[in-house]
Design a protein that fits this description.
- The strands form 4 sheets. Strands 2-8-7-6-5-3-4 form a 7-stranded mixed beta sheet, sandwiched between helices.
- Helix 3 packs antiparallel against helix 10 and helix 5 packs across helix 9.
- The chain is of the alpha/beta class and 405 residues long.
- It has 2 domains: 153 residues, Aspartate Aminotransferase, domain 1; 239 residues, Type I PLP-dependent aspartate aminotransferase-like (Major domain) (Aspartate Aminotransferase, domain 2, 3-Layer(aba) Sandwich).
């Protein structure tokens, strides 16, 4: 029996595959350093755990409304007012199983077959496959100047008669680049003028460094939510270190949210109730964990960037946010998949090939682990690639001698 044409054209998530590979190696006792992950090492906020535990202790774990429980919607409304200065209603909010599902359901709600969604490179690995799953066509805009920051003119040049939406992720996964306020303002106004949906993936919105303030897209948008084409997606996964709870949300016009709710009610119904109550605790509770995580990540970023800048042949752009760095290793190897495999096989360091993010020659390297992992991981990478590095390396209790360069 054959599978569908759609199933045949969708690739598996490379990041999830790498996580699986790393876990298998660790089970075998291999000294793996995982620099490919997108998961903070800090614990979920205590308020989230207490709220979730209290809900579970009641024994009343029932179906949730397909668009989210009222208590979480209320918390999201307050969060939106506090951090975006935008007052919305429960009808403007949908809660999903993570930001990924929120984006996926949104694409189902707005795309007709073969309509296009434009997004800049480098982009999050799932964007092209998600657009294709919704029957659309992904259109990638690669900055001509070799940077990770597009211009509005480059995005505008990609717009055609089938364009339906523009998808922006800032701070950006995988580059860590924070798009400028001027760019966000121009893209918001451009989409309003052209009648295009603008999807803002704000997953890392508050994880910014160097004294920057999070950029608020609503500062430049239509004041009336019901007539706005702007949809903002967020979650508790990254900022609150709650990846396993799988709670995200979208804020948009009532018509869009209603359509998303109708679609979401069919494949999954509402998200897990205990997870939603955990998110209520996180959003309404003490917020110090975000600043603590942000400071840790900024320090880790500084350590990683300093080491890559001392790495001959590697070009690195200093991330302004997230917990990712996207160095260019083209001087050593252009094929990023081969490079990632070499580093995993030879020195047991997990990275993610840049090809998956729309830019060959790069690797996405995460600094959300410990400082010790960062230092040792970069040292291993340098040993594997730099001809001037020492010939020997100790990998756990095993001594390696370089013989493949």
């Amino acid at each position: 029996m054959s599978i569908s044409q759609l199933a045949r054209c969708i690739c598996e998530s490379p990041t999830l595959k790498l996580n699986e590979t790393a876990a298998l190696l660790r089970e075998k006792g291999e000294p793996v350093i995982h620099l490919g992950g997108g998961e903070p090492k800090s614990k979920a906020p205590l308020d989230a755990i207490v709220n979730c535990s209290s809900m579970l202790s009641s024994g009343e774990v029932r179906y949730a409304p397909p668009d989210g429980i009222p208590a979480l919607k209320k918390a999201i409304i307050r969060y939106t007012e506090e951090h975006y200065n935008r007052l919305v209603t429960p009808e403007n909010v949908i809660v999903s199983n993570g930001a990924k599902q929120a984006i996926m359901v949104l694409l189902y709600a707005i795309l007709d077959p073969h309509e296009e969604v434009i997004f800049p490179a480098p982009y999050w690995v799932s964007y092209p496959e998600m657009v294709k799953l919704a029957g659309g066509a992904p259109v990638v805009v690669t900055p001509k100047d070799g940077s990770f920051h597009p211009t509005v003119e480059e995005v505008a040049d990609a717009v055609g008669p089938y364009t339906k939406a523009i998808l922006i992720n800032s701070p950006n996964n995988p580059s860590g680049v924070v798009y400028s306020a001027a760019f966000i303002a121009e893209i918001v106004q451009f989409c309003e003028k052209k009648g295009l949906y603008l999807i803002m993936d704000d997953t890392y919105n508050r994880l910014v460094f160097d004294g920057q303030a999070p950029i608020n897209c609503y500062d430049f948008a239509n004041d009336h939510t019901e007539t706005s084409n702007l949809v903002v997606v967020n979650c508790v996964s990254k900022m609150y270190a709650m990846t396993g709870f799988r709670i995200g949300w979208a804020v948009g016009s009532r018509d869009v949210i209603k359509a998303m709710t109708n679609i979401q009610s069919q494949p999954t119904s509402g998200p897990s109730v205990p997870a939603q109550w955990a998110a209520v605790g996180a959003l309404n509770g003490v917020q110090s964990s975000i600043e603590s995580l942000r400071v840790t990540l900024e320090n880790n970023r500084n350590v990683m960037v300093a080491r890559f800048k001392a790495f001959n042949g590697v070009s690195v752009t200093k991330p302004g946010g997230t917990f990712y760095c996207f160095p260019d290793f083209s001087a050593y190897m252009r094929d990023s998949q081969k490079l990632a495999r070499l580093l995993l096989d030879k020195v047991r360091v997990v990275t993610v090939p840049g090809r998956e993010f729309g830019m060959e020659g790069h690797l996405r390297i995460s600094f959300c682990g410990s400082t010790k992992e960062i230092v040792e991981g970069v040292e291993r990478i340098k040993w594997a690639l730099d001809p001037n590095a020492p010939n020997e390396l100790y990998l756990g209790n095993r001594k390696l001698v370089r013989d493949w360069l």
